[in-house]
Write a structure and sequence with these properties.
Number of helices: 4
CATH class: Alpha Beta
CATH topology: Transcription Regulator spoIIAA
Largest sheet: 5 strands, mixed
Strand order of the largest sheet: 1-2-3-4-5
Strand content: 25-35%
Radius of gyration: 13 Å
Structural class: alpha/beta
Distance between the termini: 29 Å
Length: about 120
C-alpha cells in the first residue's frame, strides 16, 4: 500500500509505504507525481518505508514505467529503519542527478527540513 500525504513544501510529496505494493498504488503515485511535476521543474520526495512486504508482479511492471520520471526528482529523503540503509545506497547509484539521504524514523522532521533546503 502506498499512502500519499500533504508535504510541508509545495514542490514535495510525502509517500508512506506499508505492506505489499500493488500496480494500482504505483499508478496512484504517478498521478500525484505528474501533478507536482506540472507545477515544478523538479520534485522532492520523502519516502517513509515501514513493514514493506514487497511488490506484486503487476506492481513491479508498473514500477518499471516510473523510471522515465527519475530525472524529475531533485531530492529524496528515505525514512526507514536501519535495514533499508543499504537500499538507499543502491538507489543513489541509479539516481545520479538526485540528492539522496537516509533518515531514521525518529528523524522524520529532520528529513522534511532537509527537503526544504
Amino acid at each position: 500500500m502506498i499512502k500519499i500525504t500533504p508535504a510541508p513544501f509545495d514542490n514535495a510529496l510525502e509517500i508512506e509505504i506499508q505492506g505489499k505494493v500493488e500496480k494500482e498504488d504505483l499508478h496512484h503515485f504517478e498521478e500525484f507525481f505528474m501533478m507536482k511535476r506540472q507545477e515544478h521543474s523538479k520534485v522532492n520526495i520523502l519516502l517513509s518505508i515501514e513493514n514493506m512486504e514487497g511488490v506484486t508482479l503487476k506492481g513491479a511492471l508498473e514500477d518499471l514505467k516510473m523510471t522515465q520520471h527519475l530525472k524529475d526528482i531533485h531530492k529524496m529523503a528515505v525514512v526507514s529503519d536501519k535495514k533499508w540503509v543499504e537500499m538507499g545506497v543502491k538507489l543513489e547509484g541509479i539516481l545520479p542527478e538526485t540528492e539522496l539521504k537516509h533518515f531514521a524514523p525518529k528523524d522524520k522532521s529532520q528529513a522534511q527540513r532537509w527537503l526544504g533546503t
